[in-house]
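Hi D.,

Good news: the full-assembly prediction came through. Inputs first.
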Amino acid sequence: MNAPTSDTTERSERAGRPAATPRGPAPARRRRPADLRTWGAFALLTAPMLIGLGIFKYVAIGWSFLLSLSNAHGTIALGQWVGLDNYRQLLSDDTFRSSLGKILLFTVFIVPVTFVVSLGLALLVNRVRRGRAVVRTAFLIPTAVSYVAASLVWKMCLFNGLPAGIANMVGGWFGMDSVPWLQTTDPPLYWIVLVTLRLWLQVGFYMVLFLAGLQAIPKEIDEAAALDGATGFRKLMRITLPMLRNTSVAVLMLQFIAAFQAFDEFYNLFSSGLSGTATAPVQTPLVYLYNTSMGSQNYGLGSAGAFVLTALIVAVTLIQGRLTGFGKGEE
Amino acid sequence: MSAHRPQLSRRGFLGGSLLFVAGAAVGCSTSPTGGDSSGAKTTLNVWSHAYGEAGTQQALTRYAEAFTKANPDIAVKVTWTPGDYGAKLNSALLTDGAPDVFEIGDFSQAMARRGQLAALDDVYGSAKSDFSQGNLDYMTVDGKLYGVKMIDDVMMLYYRKSALAKAGINPPTTFDELAAAAKALTTKNTKGLFVGNDGLGDTPALAVLSNGGDLVTNGKVVFDSPQAAEAVAALKRLADDQSLLLGFTTDWWDPSALIQNVVPMQWCGLWAMPAIKTALGDDFGVLPWPAFKAGGSPVLRVGGWTACVNAKGKHVDAAKKFVQWLWVDQTDLQKDWSESYGFHVPPRASVAAAADKLAQGAAKETVELAAKYGKHNPNTWDSEVSTPFSAAAKKIVSGQGDAAQLLSDAAKQAQTALDKQHT
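Then the structure:
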């Protein structure tokens, strides 16, 4: 698995060719009749995946787009075309607009915090000499917990409104009165619950990505830097962070998308028996869309919202890609 | 380390893949119901939300088996659905795996108008007059009946007699008295009243109804009337006094907060009465939500569950037969369902009269109160119409704007949604 790059290339060039056939000098271009077998194998091996992707993703996406242009109440059959009415209704709905505002606020806050915390953890864990695997695993384990399970623990155990709740108990040691964490809107204490939950669940995962990036930094560079007298903070800023650029950009992008798609914890923390999430202090766009489609059965409006949200995610990703140069490869 | 792993040969890989696919195919095609459907021509898929009381799931399965015994050609598969029942049902109704028979909590005329529900007039037969006119009206859309009410669920205020007596408080009869009682019963570590974890629950609608207002009348959204705005705005007092229990581990429909002595007053339902009686003995009483002020009216909410038949299902006739058998004909099973687990009021008058457990003590009191002050939600009150109201109420209670203005905006939005139910 740690084979040098040159070795891998050689093997893939050899793959698919009959071993005994003598060949001339390596062809510069790929697509030659002799490579038909390779293409056949490629098609055979990727077809199940591509067909699945086509049917279950692209056809569904296309259908959903058509739905967004039609009046589809309680049905996903097409037919009653209404043009852009759904989009108009959506963008004039205060609830949806405020949900977009809230998710931007959430993103602007949670992305840098997750980024800094996971990078910091990775740097620390990377310096641990003994038992690194144990430490790494300890931080990674929360990633394997489902959002739903974690939300319930946070809601019922840690941040419930009772004096016996763990957060209130700890607060009580310092003379604080018990507060209902999720229901207090002034000041908005529910953000503490949301942010701590997401950090606990996500930091470990991004930490592992950063660790992989850190371990890929060649020892020679570190040593050369050390010889030149770069240590501590200076080494971090001049050597480590620049060498982590590709990892950082990918992590940022993943975090943006994850933040925009926030649903699970918002839904599970705020849903209440009677009114669903109608009275939640903050609704994310996905929660709004879930209520619209699954609650009110307005699939047309729901699809329109899905496309608005997708457009937003694509736009942010593209802008971020342009600013950070993601996908340009190594210099 | 990976370099030393024995390579998987192409043949081995292919063989393994085929085995896996074959195994998956066999696994997926095996019916999870087991031997239930042997010999039956049709299998009905019946959906139920997860009732909280012990024994309910077994009871429903028992009824289904009894039906198959009486109708050997129809097997019944009961799907018990925990979690967000409404959302799961709505999405399942779009698919081939849609249930043939399902229950819904708040009957919605929109579902009938969209053609999702089958008309059930012929299912009632001669028993129709045994059902209350209120329930029949509730399920009538354009002159046809689209459901059979399985149970009436009464929701009311429970209070601990001892706690109120100790504080020298009489059971409240107006909203002012309720708010004052809730405040007086609030101490550093306990709150006075539990209406729901969001601090609202059903109270906005109760407030409107208790002040002579209404939610929807004759297809017009009217929750923006002055008396409605006055009553909803007054709910802010409960929040400002900090006398509401918030963020409890279970929600208002579960009696744990009352039973565990976390609150002395809780809005809950008749279904919870057996559990409350077991835990508290006679140390509890029931009350309607009090009149907003003199001249208003006390109110209890009557909800419940309605059996419906999927109009687009493959076995509409068999499904109708099942609904008729269980929820119209089998009066003894209806009685069992209504009083052996949680308490519910049987919708058939004759069954209700025979339900002896409901004819004594606090249960009897509740049934009488419900007959006098009980209110159904209108059948136009689906989530698209109710959401703007709940959201506005939340803003009003947390002081984010003027009640009349917020309710008037919400009413416009709700009216648009309501008008769409007819298209």
